[in-house]
Amino acid sequence: MSEGEPPEIIGWDDASFEEFVAGSSARLFTMARLLTGGHRAEAEDLLQGAFERAYRRWGRITRRADPERYVRQILVNASVDRWRRLRRHPEAPLVVTGADPGTADTAAAVADRDLLLRGLAALPPRQRAVLVLRYFEDLSEAQTATMLGCSVGTVKSQTAHGLARLRDFTGGAGDRDAGTRKGTVHHD
Amino acid sequence: MTDFERRLRAAMAAAAEPPPAGLLDGIRRRHRRHVRRVGAACVAAVAAVGIAAPLVTRGMLAGPAGTGPAAPTASSPAVIIPSAVPTSTPTAAPGTVLRDCQSNNDGTLGSNWKAASVHAGPVWFIYARSKSNPPSSQRLTVGKLTASAMVIAVSNAHTAVVTAGPAVRGRFRFLANFNSDGNPYTLAEGAPGLTLVGCPAGPAGIHIPESYAPGLTMFWEGYVTDLRGCVPLEVRTSPASRPIRVTVLAANGGCGS
User: Fold this and answer.
1) Who has the most CB within 10 Å: A76, A83, A91, B56?
2) Among B159-163, B215-219, B230-234, where is mean pLDDT lowest?
C-alpha cells in the first residue's frame, strides 16, 4: 500500500475523536513525557500509539463516562511494556547541575523544578510511573494500584522509595543549594 | 502532604507543554499501518491454513511411515497443492499494481464529492475535477520527479484495471510504494496500471466511508508524471471489455471528464 500522507480532502471519520484528541492531548502528552523521563520522541510515540489504540475501540470507549481515563490506562500500560523491553539496558551516569543559589526566587524555583524533573527521569521507570500517577494525575493509592496492576502496598512502598531517591538525588527536601551531583538515568 | 511532595507536584504541573504538531496525522498513519498489518496477517493465516491443511490431512491418511500407500519417498517428494489456497485470492493484471480490500484507506468524503469527482464504470477518481486537488508530481531534475497521489475508489465486489492512456503511457506511472515528502522517483520505478479489487459486497467493511460513499473501497494511490494539466486514463472491467476513457486532473487547472 502506498505510504503517502492523505490529502485534506480525506478527513478523519469520527469528529468526536478529533475533538477528544484536541482536548486531551496536551495533558496526556505531558504525562507521557513524565512517564518516559522527558524523552520527547518517546513520549510522542507513546501518545500516538495510545490514541491509535483508543481509536480502534472508539465506539466502545465513548460509551464510557471518561474516555480520557481509558487512554491514560493505555498510556500507562504501554509505558510498562516499554520499560519491560528496556529493563536490560544499562544505566549511564547523569551529571545534574543544581540551582544557582545566587539567582532570584523565580529562577531558583525554575531550577528547582528542573532538578526535580531530572531526578524523576533518573528513577526506575516503575517508581517514576507511581509518582506520576500519584502527583501528576492525583490518583489515590488504590487507583494507582489498579492502573498499574499491583497491590496498594506496592504503591505505598514504591512511592516511599521513589520520594526517598528523589530527595537523595536533589540533595534533600529542603536542600536547594547549588552543586553538581551525579545520579543515574535509565536509557529510555 | 510534605513540602517536598508539593514541590514535586508543582514541578510536574509546570512541565506541561503543548502537544506535538501533526499528532492527528501521526495517529492516522499509525492506524493505516495497523489495518494493513492486520489484513496482511489474515491473508497470511488463511494461506498458511490452506497450505498446511492438505499436508496434515495427507499425513494423517498415510499413517506411520511405510504403512500407507501414499507415504512420500525420496523419489516421490510431497507436493504442496496450490489449489488448496483460496481461489478467490485477487491477482494483478499484467503490468499493473494490485490494490485490494486489504490495502484500502480509511477516511470520509465531503457531501459534494461526487460533483468534484470523475466517474468511470465502477471506478471513481475522487476530486479529480477539483482545482484544490493536491498538486501534481513535480519535475526535480532530468528524469527525477516527486511523487504525488490521487484517491481512487472502486465499487465493492467489483474489479477494474486502470491504465494510463496509450499516448501517455511512458509519462505517467502508478507507484507500488511511495511517500510524498519530496523523495525523487523516476518514471521507470512505476507501473503503467492498477488492478483495483473492491471489498466484498455487503455491510460496510473496514473503513469504507459509509456516510457519503456507501459501498466503495478507497485507495490512496501514488503516481509520478512529467505531464502538466490533464492525464488521460482508461478503465476496464474485464480484459475483453472496451476501455472507458476519462481525463483526470494531475496538475492545477480545470480538468475532468
Assistant:
1) A76
2) B215-219
